[in-house]
Amino acid sequence: MRRFGQPPRKNITYRDRPGAYAILQKGNRLLLTEQADPGPELQLPGGGIDPGESPLVALHREVFEETGWSVRIIRKVGSYQRFVFMPEYDLWARKLCHIYLGVPGQRLGSPLEPGHRAVWLETGRAVHALAGAGDRWFTRRTLGSGT
Fold first, then answer.
1. pTM of the predicted model over 0.70
2. Amino acid 128: pLDDT
3. What local confidence, expressed as pLDDT, does residue 145 receive?
4. Which residues neighbour 81 within 8 Å (Cβ) at sequence distance 6 or greater?
5. What sign results for the dihedral spanned by CA atoms 66, 67, 73, 75?
6. Which H or E run includes 59?
7. Which residue ranges of the chain lie beneath pLDDT 50?
8. Residue 43 near residue 33, CB atoms below 8 Å
9. From the centroid of its chain, how far is CA 35?
């Protein structure tokens, strides 16, 4: 599986943390989420898959919690891993990021997740603004080299 970011440290035990994330394009814009903490950054909407939850159910839930929008998922475009410390959980994690392509549906309300807000950006700008190298790589690969 492709890895982005730092390699795993030999002296650390990592816990697998699967998650589902979406590239959501409408016209020439992408729907992203801005997470305020630990510092403001733009991300593909999505997040952790809870025990017993399917990736698609988690993705619909997480996109709504982080953006307030419903989505229609078209297809899975790939997966990658990254090794990180998650301060909100006091956890060293091997994040298994499953990436999907979809389209935004309707705005159902404000984001429920504290510290998140929905952001619309022109596709080319959005790709460059994404904080995660894996998110940037998959978005470029999925939407074409012109992004």
1. yes
2. 95
3. 56
4. 1, 2, 3, 4, 94, 95, 96, 97
5. negative
6. helix 55-67
7. none
8. yes
9. 11
